[in-house]
Amino acid sequence: MKKATFGLSVFTALSMTAAVSANSMDEVKISAQQVSKNVYMLAGAGGNIGVLLGKDGTLMIDDQFEPLAPKIEQAIIDIKTAVNPKVSYVVNTHYHGDHTGGNVYFSKSASLLAHENVRKRLAQKSDQGLPVITYESGVMLHVNNEDVKVMHLPAGHTDGDSVVYFANANVWHLGDLFFQNRFPYIDTDGGGSVSGYIQNLSSLLLQIDDSAQIIPGHGELANKNDLQNLLSMIIATKLEVQTKRAQGKSQEEIIEEGLSEKWSSWNWSFITEEKWIKTLYNSK
Length: 284
Fold this sequence. Notes:
This protein is α/β, with parallel strands linked by helices. The protein is built from nine helices and twelve strands. It has one domain (10-225): Metallo-beta-lactamase, Chain A (4-Layer Sandwich), CATH 3.60.15. Helix content is 31%, strand content 19%. Mean pLDDT is 92; it is low at 1-21.
């Protein structure tokens, strides 16, 4: 297979993108997709945003890149059911810049919530846009006639991962514990691990019912079967790489051979097949 060059970590690349001038984001459009009566998914550049609308103000899950914040705000205003579009709460599912870049902008009106490790990691970069409410295991919010359960999971994608469950709507936002139909990014420098990622997906699949709708960190609106497909892919490709490694093959040899052809469609710009093989080869 042709080797891809991946000189920067995904987080570094995303952070650089977030720092680029607003002009580079001029062509990005924020689309809003209704998931349930008052839950929407916003897509643009970076991680998918979850939005809960109502008279209590808007609760938002993640906020993409800083240059896109005014567009995100306008997209919420444009939703007809947004009786009070003011962003009152923002939950960060983890610390990466494509999910927290809008924190400074939205902190003008919103209380920011995240796991305590998210605040710690963001504080290493800046003292602005930090979560003002942190938790160890989770928190429950009662907003807009919805019970919003925010749950911290053990280290998987990072060491500060949270998932959000809108109980009445039966909608989940899984942050970057769910890359739909693409190889996931596992931030080992940020406390993540392949084994932890697998354990978290297995745990979530026991909690999510068949009728639930799932907002992934990246990709299209999904369901439980899509999440199962991700877990199955990780387990299968991990076994492929581990088997070849046990046979004495080097990382470079495995990259040259590639994974089974059925996984080729999971390759994407940030996590190429080469990068995914490296992640699996060096995983615990």
